[in-house]
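Running this now, will post back.
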Amino acid sequence: MTTLSRRALLLAAAGIPAWSEELGAGKLLVATRKSRDPDLGESVILLIQFSSGGASGLMLNRPTRAPVARLFPDLKSARGEVYDGGPIDLGVRGLLRSRSQPTAGERVFGDVYLVGDRKAIGALAGGGASSRRFRVYSGYTGWTPGQLKNEVASGLWQVMPPDVAVVFDPDPAAVWSRLTGG
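Update: finished.
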């Protein structure tokens, strides 16, 4: 039995839903084998926002092989590739690992910041930031109030603690397999 499931059992015995402690910005969602969703199956998602109004996240393990310059045509020299952040095809976001909070960034956890300002994302991409500390995402994942809690309770997601090594893994396409053991 994993630590997470032991914790869930203890919380349930106390009458506290497991998701009340486990879900929050910075947590990782790992799709279980039970998930058959064509968009989210075998995905690893970083929750970037969680509240009574709903939740949103970015898929960490779906590099597209499209260059960042495709989103920022003025930055022909921009390094890196775009990641598919999720099936909601709105906006561009960046995840930045930084010792200090960037002006246009919002802390997700530890030294990981969400950058939502297109100009700031372009500056970071054009400045040659390494994929070990900065990644660009097109789109995002989202849940209505209560939807994610129900999906976790139904066993579609395993909730894991924040982990910068997962967020900036050098082999993102293999993260789901490593986290699920196969």
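DSSP finds six helices and ten strands in the chain. More later if anyone needs it.
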